[in-house]
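**Polypeptide and fold**
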Amino acid sequence: MKRLYAGAPAYYGWPVGSEFGYLGGWGYAIQGPEPFRLGFFRQWAFKDPAWDWHSFDWTRDPPRVRAAIGGLVDAVDPDLRPFRDHGGKLILYHGWADPIGNVYDTIHYYEAVEHRVPDTASFARLFLFPGMGHCRGGIGPNSFDAIGALEDWVERGRAPNRLVALKSPTTDETGGLAIGGPPTGAGRTRPACAYPATAHYHGSGSLDQASSYACRQH
């Protein structure tokens, strides 16, 4: 686990909490004796059905993979000024417990956009959800209304500073994501704050209610 948290020379370590999906939970990262999505490398990157993942070289192979498929799959250009100038609004979100897409990738991209476009917060916001897995599910609150927040921003000019997420006690860890309407039902609610702000407990009130937390930066 320490090696996974530490990362590789060419890639970030995985956040504490993402191990939920390695073997248990959804079983995303490892299926049987091999890692998940080996076909991506065998068929796309190396074009060799017999390619052995044990042979991956972190010094030699990342440039090979990038040269083979980077132009097709990479979406890493931080210059979103044309999108901004066209009136676009963007809500990015990621779960801290995602075992497939590394949350540090998304943070790095958002910070690159901020560096390239100083007024990023005027048209793009990033929200990070503790305990949420790959787009949904996980042990933390993960049902929230991103579409409603986006509509409110585009149509009424109200930029979202927080998204309130629900974790229902009646759903398992693979519970769905509410993207088309506000989460309903009883359960734990927590705010995800617009990055880099995080949720801080007021010091009173229920720990399971979003109203007991304020968003602020360290």
User: Anything to note?
Assistant: The longest strand covers residues 90-95.
